[in-house]
Each structure stands twice: as structure tokens, then as C-alpha cells.
Amino acid sequence: MSIIKHALLNIPVAVKSIQKEIEKLQSGYWKPHLNKNDYEGGWDVLSFRSPGGGLNTFAESLNNEAFADTPLLAHCPAVRSLLDSLQCEKFSARLLNLQAGAVIREHRDKELHFEKGEARLHFPIITNPHVEFYLDNERLQMQEGECWYINANLPHRLANKGNSDRIHLVVDCKVNVWLSQVFSEAIARVELDDKEAFLRNKQTILQTISELRRHPGSTAAELANELERQLKEAEK
Q1: CA neighbours closer than 13 Å in the CB half-sphere of residue 103
Q2: Is pLDDT at 79 greater than 60 in this prediction?
Q3: Which residues are 95's β-sheet partners?
């Protein structure tokens, strides 16, 4: 079965407002990332949603604790507004700060991908041109104010070779009809008259259609039908 490696999604981000909110957060709120064997240099975490709502760095639930907002989210209305705009269940939501000169070794986050029902979204808040992010040996250049899905189950590595910090808001979401629609719209943005470009995304389109078919309701069915129509049109 084909998989979606990555996708640039059309989710609006008030990046300037979020940058200002981050500047006001106290340095004491940042905690070193727990996976110390995976990186060199500074890699810090600040949590807005966590298991039990505590100021920890966990992205996975412990002892079946439900994810909840942490107290810091109340101080960041622009971040809260962005999270509220994601019309799906949210698990963890964290700021990840890879400091200048730091390196994250290649690793995988097991089973964390769209096809398994969970999508990791990256919102670059502060970055620089010298950040090198590789997913399955493909370099992704993510810009401030964008929203990227990455298949975290694939091998990925990162190096901040710039002179400034690289901060992403990273949100783990449960895949539902709304998020499937966002994915389908990202695919549909490819110009249909460029058949070669559209058909290069055929496997991603088929996977999205399959995901939509899993959800009951007319909205999901209509989206799946529309994608099938576009695909047939491009294949003529």
C-alpha cells in the first residue's frame, strides 16, 4: 500500500502573532527533550497540550492519561486560535526548539502517520535557510507560516546549521473527515491541465480516497467522488 510521505497543507497561521507570544514566554518553561540519545546540542520542548495537562515534554500518553491543555496555552491566544482552527482531535501540541548548531540523529516515530489514523503537523514559527530537514533522504524546506504534514514513521533527521534557533509548533492530530478534506484539497491544488504533475500524485490521491471511504457520511463520500472524477479526467 502506498503512503503519503509529506504534504504542504492550506491551514492559515498567524505566524507573526505567535512569534511575539513566544518571545514573552519565560525561559524556565522550556525543558530539554527526553530522547537525549537522539540529538546533540540544544533541543528544548515547551508543551501546550500534554498527557494530563502537565508541563512535561511527553508526546505519548502515559497510564492512559487523556491529553489536555497546559496552563501555558492561556498565555498564548494566537496559538490557542490556531489549535482551535484544527477541526479534529488533538493529542500533543508542543513548541520544539532546535538551537543553532544542534543535530537530531536519524530516527523514526513508530506508527505515527496518516495511514494509521494519526497525523503530525509541523508549523514552522522561527527558522532559517540553513536548517536541513531530511525525510526518507528527501530534503524538505519548510518556511515560516506554513503547515506541513510529515510521515514521522519514515526515517528523518535534522541539523540547524544556522546562527539562530529553529522553532516549530508540532501538533499530533487524529485523522477525521475534516483533516482528510484538508489533505484532498492539497492534492487538488495541482493544476489538472498538467496531467504529468497530477498523475505523479496518483498514489497519494488513491490513499486519500481510501481514507475518505472509511468515514461515514455524505461529506466524505462527496470528496472521495470528486477526487475520483479528477483522477479519471487526468488519465484520459
Answers
A1: 4
A2: yes
A3: 46, 169
